Amino acid sequence: MPLAGARIAVIGGGIGGLATAAFASRSGARVTVFEKSPGTDGAGIQISSNGSRLLGRLGAEVGQDPPSFSATTLTVRTHRSGQRLAQLALARSADAPYLLLRRSDLIAFLSRSAQMHGAVLVPGCSATPERRDGRFCLRAGRDEPKDFDIIIAADGRRSKSREHVLGSGENNDFVSDQRVWRALVPFEAVPAAFRGDLEAGPCLFAGPGCHVVAYALPGGDTVNLVAVVRNGRRITGNADPGGLGAAFPGWCPDIVSLLDLIPASDAGDLHRHSPLPNWSRDNLVLLGDAAHPMMPHLAQGASAALEDAWTLVELFSRISSVENAARTYERLRKPRTARLQRASEASGRLYQLASPPLRLAFQFGLAAVSRLAPFALRWWYGWIHDHDAAAVLRRR
Ligand SMILES: Cc1cc2nc3c(=O)[nH]c(=O)nc-3n(C[C@H](O)[C@H](O)[C@H](O)COP(=O)(O)OP(=O)(O)OC[C@H]3O[C@@H](n4cnc5c(N)ncnc54)[C@H](O)[C@@H]3O)c2cc1C
């Protein structure tokens, strides 16, 4: 359908929902975004080339708007000595950099971008799809349900809209055995040996049953830390757990001192997810984590949501029937996101290998690749980072 004048409702003002609103309003649609609890999450986020390429289409200027910094390498260090095992090249081109930024800055950029073209953001308002006469309308807050041509549910991993698409009883969300801690710590707390790596990009410390990712945020004075522990429930079960460092016995003291800045009680569960059978029903379409939540180990959830947003809006503007456009979106996006879901889980297992011979083989292999072919990571992750959603549509 031509998008000019089309009435589009978006449930959820996260990265996926706001990017959809920004792309659709640029195409002339009348977009309303309902967000039940607008957050001010200052934590960091990595947006790899496949996502940043699409931010560029919304006018993002590298480094400036949203404030970000372009990572050039991914460093992997051992857990025991903290020694550098591998340093692999990341970014490929200036128009598709590997960005490190604050979530709140990305949300602010996407909100501005959507509003600049007329999208209306309704904060503090929970919205629910309701089915009437064979299609969906939307109840926002306590208002009477309203008609929209398209309802896009970007309501996150715990999406309630998913039930309306799948029918109740379907579940693809399982609590994993992994717990996650996220924290912002001052850059000056980072041991001198790691500072250079963190200034060049993300640094992964990989150990048996746990791993840690750290990277510097724009401005240079803050570091984003993510720590993942298998069977982490035991740590938070302790009545007086103190800092997280105690959960990393045998790790290099420099890393432990950083982890001690994270309160052990601030944990979240990580969830495993299997691909959904379908993402749309009539005029209701799932997007981002609502459609394909994934483990964070490849840092791809938000970039995949940006790819969804671009693809869905383009298809709506090219295909006259909403249902056909939604089916084409599913057909194009599902194989990739299912692969990302599987690969994210597998990466977590690899980082956290517990068997000493397998760990050694992994470390040896990585060190060899880093020395002999530092650009190999680009090839290894090429299917993820080089993905160009626009090129996929051209080939369709
Ligand atoms: C520890 C961790 C680290 C991560 N790091 C990265 C990373 O570096 N790079 C990356 O690409 N991804 C990363 N991710 C994944 C990424 O955060 C998500 O994939 C991404 O935020 C999904 O965006 P979304 O818009 O689909 O959903 P969300 O960001 O969850 O947004 C959904 C929004 O919908 C709102 N909402 C829900 N229900 C309703 C309702 N009924 N009415 C109105 N509003 C509603 C919610 O309040 C929320 O704001 C990470 C995830 C974790 C857990």
Brief overview:
The protein is α/β, with parallel strands linked by helices and 396 residues long.
CATH class equals: Alpha Beta
Major β-sheet profile: 7 strands, mixed
Bound molecules: flavin-adenine dinucleotide
Strand order of the largest sheet: 6-5-14-15-16-13-17
Which value, in Å, is the CA radius of gyration? 21 Å
Number of domains: 1
The helix fraction, in percent, is 25-40%
Low-confidence stretches: none
CATH T-level topology? FAD/NAD(P)-binding domain
Distance between the termini: 18 Å
**Helices and strands: which structural class?**
alpha/beta
Overall shape: globular
Number of helices: 13
The CATH level-2 architecture is identified as 3-Layer(bba) Sandwich
At the fourth CATH level, what is the homologous superfamily? Answer: FAD/NAD(P)-binding domain
- Per DSSP E runs of 2 or more residues, the count of β-strands stands at 19
Mean pLDDT: 92
Strand content: 25-35%
Q: What can you tell me about this protein's structure?
A:
The protein is an alpha/beta fold and 396 residues long. It has one domain: FAD/NAD(P)-binding domain (3-Layer(bba) Sandwich), CATH 3.50.50. 36% of the residues lie in helices and 27% in strands. It contains 13 helices and 19 strands. The strands form four sheets. A seven-stranded mixed β-sheet has the order 6-5-14-15-16-13-17, with helices on both faces. Strands 8-2-1-12-19-18 form a six-stranded mixed β-sheet. Strand 15 and strand 16 form a beta hairpin. The chain is globular. The two termini are 18 Å apart. The model has no long low-confidence stretch (mean pLDDT 92). It binds flavin-adenine dinucleotide (FAD). Flavin-adenine dinucleotide (FAD) binds next to helix 1, strand 2, strand 3, strand 9 and strand 13.
